[in-house]
């Protein structure tokens, strides 16, 4: 297996990152990206090759830790006051609960730092006792490594997090530019995510599929349930471009087509509350494949959210009840993501941010069948095992690199806000 870094995006990200991390860690990042595919096993991007944090970054982090310690002490004082009201006690106790994980790590770090100070003092006092000096030096090396580990964990805990990362996802695949070939590739991409989900142990459930004349997919959606699904798949949204000889091509020419992928975090009832008066629910007879049963019963369901005009239509199941449940699930996910984007970016257009126009030029990844390679244009990585990727394998080559880039960007942002 070979990985080639095409250079532009990754080099730019690494150059930007050198001002935040020490040069030695930047070198290890380069090595980490270039050797990422030496094994097919999935790896956690944040636990390998512990970073050597720069002094400036440690200083900024210490300021944040001191603020957390002060905040925790204030809440401790509140709940220990004899005249504290039930409301104040409840509020302070909730805030302390939120800080507990960080405070446990901070206390562990402070204990380790005291140990390091003690060992250094001991080494200064026993320089004439070689055996004692060597023992203290060995213990000091171990303590410093543990301090770095704790600092890295604390840095990770302080970085901005997306609460939706641990949720399941709604996957939507649409054929873009390229006619029937785009529909056939949309089917291939959809099945790629199905196989990837199975390998991850996630539950993949078909929501709706609209077939083309050649049995490709004009549109297809699925519900993917499991822990951390959205955190992994959110990088897959965008335009996926394919270069290959279509089955309809007589002269053997390579065509370029495009497929758009949207990834929405699943919404809980507490996230989106749908009022009956805000919904218009229509039922109608299913079209397309499905036999006589699908064509003679009003099993298909179309739900319109009147305040936004958003419409979801599902006809995959023969049961009207099941189609309605799936339509509500997709509608909730879309409304939840719309609100998330409105808060984060002050924009209200959900799909245009995720899948663009479907034009071939707006691509995040290219699948070149004649050369057997897949290139992710955001991180500049090319994987020369296209068949494995289409079988749901080695997608983590790209996803883990994108997670790493996200971590790098978050740390850069962290250091710029003091």
TrEMBL record:
Record flagged with keyword Ribonucleoprotein: no
Which UniProt keywords are given for this protein, alphabetically ordered? Coiled coil, Methylation, Protein biosynthesis
The protein's GO terms of the molecular function aspect are: translation release factor activity, codon specific
InterPro entries for this protein = PCRF (IPR005139), Pep_chain_release_fac_I (IPR000352), Pep_chain_release_fac_I_sf (IPR045853), Prokaryotic/Mito_RF (IPR050057), RF-1 (IPR004373)
Q: Which residues form a coiled coil?
A: 109-153
User: Domain Peptide chain release factor: where?
Assistant: 121-236
Q: Which GO terms describe its cellular component?
A: cytoplasm
Superkingdom of the source species: Eukaryota
Q: Which family does it belong to?
A: Belongs to the prokaryotic/mitochondrial release factor family.
HAMAP family linked: Rel_fac_1
Report the protein name in the record.
Answer: Peptide chain release factor 1-like mitochondrial
């Amino acid at each position: 297996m070979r990985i080639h870094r095409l250079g532009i995006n990754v080099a730019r990200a690494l150059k930007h990152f050198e001002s935040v991390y020490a040069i030695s860690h930047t070198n290890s990042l380069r090595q980490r990206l270039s050797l990422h595919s030496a094994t097919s096993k999935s790896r956690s991007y944040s636990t390998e090759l512990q970073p050597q944090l720069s002094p400036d970054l440690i200083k900024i982090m210490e300021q944040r830790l001191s603020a957390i310690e002060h905040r925790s002490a204030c809440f401790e004082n509140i709940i220990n006051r004899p005249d504290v009201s039930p409301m104040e006690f409840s509020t302070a106790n909730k805030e302390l609960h939120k800080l507990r994980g960080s405070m446990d790590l901070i206390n562990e770090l402070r204990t380790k730092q005291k140990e390091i100070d003690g060992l250094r003092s001991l080494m200064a006092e026993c320089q004439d006792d070689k055996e004692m000096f060597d023992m203290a030096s060995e213990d000091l090396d171990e303590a410093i490594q543990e301090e770095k580990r704790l600092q890295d964990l604390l840095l990770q805990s302080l970085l901005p997090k997306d609460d939706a990362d641990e949720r399941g996802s709604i996957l939507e695949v649409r054929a873009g530019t390229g006619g029937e070939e785009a529909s056939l590739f949309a089917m291939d991409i959809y099945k790629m995510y199905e196989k990837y989900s199975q390998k991850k142990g996630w539950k993949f459930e078909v929501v709706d599929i609209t077939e083309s004349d050649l049995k490709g997919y004009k549109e297809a959606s699925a519900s993917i349930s499991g822990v951390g699904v959205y955190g992994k798949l959110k990088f897959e949204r965008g335009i996926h471009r394919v270069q290959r000889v279509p089955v309809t091509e007589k002269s053997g020419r390579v065509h370029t087509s495009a497929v758009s992928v949207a990834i929405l975090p699943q919404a809980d009832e507490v996230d989106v509350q749908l009022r009956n008066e805000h919904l218009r629910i229509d039922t109608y007879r299913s079209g397309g494949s499905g036999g006589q049963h699908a064509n003679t019963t009003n099993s298909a369901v179309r739900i319109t959210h009147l305040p936004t005009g958003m419409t979801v239509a599902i006809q995959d199941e023969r049961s009207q009840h099941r189609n309605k449940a799936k339509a509500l699930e997709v509608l909730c996910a879309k409304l939840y993501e719309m609100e998330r984007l409105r808060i984060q970016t002050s924009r209200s257009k959900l799909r245009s941010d995720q899948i663009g126009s479907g034009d071939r030029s707006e691509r995040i990844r290219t699948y070149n069948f004649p050369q057997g390679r897949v290139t992710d244009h955001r991180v500049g990585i090319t994987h020369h095992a296209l068949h494995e990727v289409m079988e749901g394998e080695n997608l983590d080559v790209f996803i883990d690199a994108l997670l790493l880039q996200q971590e790098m960007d978050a740390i850069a942002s962290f250091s710029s806000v003091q």
